[in-house]
Amino acid sequence: MFNIQYISEILPSLLSGAAMTLQVFIWTIIGSLILGVFLALGLVSKFKPLQYIISAYVWLMRGTPLLLQLIFVFYGLPTVGIVFPRYEAALFAFILNYAAYFAEIFRGGLQSVDKGQYEAGRVLQMTYWQTTKKVVLPQVAKIVLPSIGNEVINLVKDSSLVYVIGIGDLLRAGNVAAARDVTLVPFILVGIMYLILTGICTFFLRKVEKHYSYFR
Known about the structure:
Elements: H1 4-43, H2 48-63, H3 66-76, H4 86-112, H5 116-123, H6 128-158, H7 170-181, H8 185-211
Helix pairs in contact: 1-4, 1-7, 1-8, 2-4, 3-4, 4-6, 5-6, 6-8, 7-8
């Protein structure tokens, strides 16, 4: 079943697909984390109209499947004159979706830190930004890390959804090889690669959590 020669023949295409999966993963993490922070600040702001708009956005993104959003961006938006290439469409949909989840995570983290921390900072003659940077944000990071870790692992697996709009990711490469050669070996290799990717992410997330472990 596991013919070494056959594996060596299909491995380059699987690795190429894995590279595409990593690209989608990395850019989505960067874009959605940054956008998520700004959305979270809007959610905790005292400007009610902004709060309502962002809350509606978060509700929409979290309440509909990512697959549906991906299809809508690539196939639906062109009907109103907005056209994205496949790769850009995938990133756009993924970033908008995951930013909504990160916004809720960051909102919970921000609201869980006692406002007395700022008062303590003033007593110690620290400025607002010094208190935020050195006292509040490290505590927020400690609180939200487990939830962010879960979303990061989910993103590794969700990245396979780009297959539906024809992007040559890891799952698509495995499906092509399996259909061509009528064997499940490519799918087994794809599964192993996803396990390796999630294992690497879990390892680094544990390292980051350990870094913030002094906030207990």
